[in-house]
Amino acid sequence: MSVQVLSPSLPHAERPSWLSSLPRTSSSRSINTTSATKIDISSSPSCITTFTVRVHKDEPQITQGAQAARNTWLDIVPSAKDKQLRSHSAGPHGNFFAITWPYGKMERVKLATEIIETLWMYDDIAEDIPQNKAAEVHAKLSDSLEADKVPEHSSRKILIMGLFHGFAERLVRMDEEGAARVIDSLKSYLQNYDSKKGAFPDIDQYAEFRIVNVGFWIMESFMQWTLGICLTEKEQEMCHEFCLYAGRAMGLTNDLYSWNVERNDPADRQWNAVPVIKKQYDLTEENAVVYLKGLIVQHEQKTRQLGAEVRKQCAGSRKMAKYVDAMGMMLGGNCLWSSNCPRYNDEAGNE
Ligand SMILES: [Mg+2]
């Protein structure tokens, strides 16, 4: 089977439109227009995104958030050192979160980085928990995000729960209004984690479930929170389809680049589109990967189309223009980072 992979076209303006249209008033000063630098993705040939990629001006501080998470984690789980604690959000163009939220408020991006880096390290431990016990452990961790439930005891699991409890408190302290949605997304992720692995008859059903499992709603809620915006229920509803396409694009993109390390995992531990596509269409692994690339580009294009519709419907809303543009940058950043991060690519690079 031969599937043509569309080359990325990069017809984007240098600056996001919501920045160009910002009046120079005191209310716009919270956004530092020089706070992100465009990355030339042509230097990363394996990157297929059709979106612009930028890196936050304060990337070094954001990286400190990841470092803080790793130091705390090593205090709680010293054996992680022996397992050579895998590199998580680091990348050659900068930290994952500095690239996915390039216009976020630095302190918020830094805290979000610390939280998700911790979640990723927790994911690594979760891989070692027998599947029948995993749901119980995730549920307990989800409970620890409740502000009024202070974890007891002092076992390692409890220490981890205490850590997440502390994160919830810091989120609320920084911005009580926006924190609730972020905390809900973290809880929903933990409650759904591992619940359906390996049970997908086709790529459509798989991609649908992968939206939650890849952490899209966590990334999306932090995206709003770091930008200091909070969509109303009506606005969120209007963007729902747009979000679903973006979420599928994010999940499928992760699968494309992490397949490199996941292909050797046991089948019941794999969260990846390649084996699903391979089985559904009776393809070789190579052709399933090519098919997956096509699916990602298709989902990115649909995201762009729906984003344009949202902007049209909300003409004049700077908040919504900002939201749509930030979503594109998040997908672009996710793709570039995944295509060359140490986590998914060997030392010699995979480009
Ligand atoms: Mg993966």
TrEMBL record:
Classification via Pfam families: Terpene_syn_C_2
GO biological process entries: isoprenoid biosynthetic process
Keywords: Lyase, Magnesium, Metal-binding
Record-listed E.C. numbers: 4.2.3.-
InterPro entries the record matches: Isoprenoid_synthase_dom_sf, Terpene_cyclase-like_2
Gene3D superfamilies: Farnesyl Diphosphate Synthase
Compositionally biased tracts (Low complexity): 16-36
Single annotated GO MF: terpene synthase activity
Keyword field contains Phosphoprotein: no
Name under which the protein is recorded: Terpene synthase
